Amino acid sequence: MFTDGLTNNWVTDFESSNIKRFGWNDHTLYVEFLNLSDEYIYAYPNVEETVFHAFCLSSSKGKYFATVIKPCYPVFNKIQVMDAEEFDY
Length: 89
What we know:
Blueprint: E1 19-25, E2 28-33, E3 40-45, H1 49-57, H2 61-72, E4 77-80
Antiparallel strand pairs: 1-2, 2-3, 3-4
C-alpha cells in the first residue's frame, strides 16, 4: 500500500493492460496508467465513492474507466510520479 500523501487506499490487486493502479481520497480518484511515456498520476475530482467502489468491482478496469469515468470526469491535475523506491508498497 502506498503512503504518498495522495491516498492511503491504492488498489493494485488486479490485472489490466491499461491501468497500473488507482485510489480514491476526499472525492478525488487517482489513476496511474501503464504504457504511457509520461510518469504521471491523473487526478479526477468530484468522483463519488459509489463510482470508486464500482470501479473496484469492475471486471475490466480499462473498460470501466473508458466508459464511465473518462466521459464524466475531466482530468483535474497531472501529478508527477517520483521514483518507486521512495514509495512504501
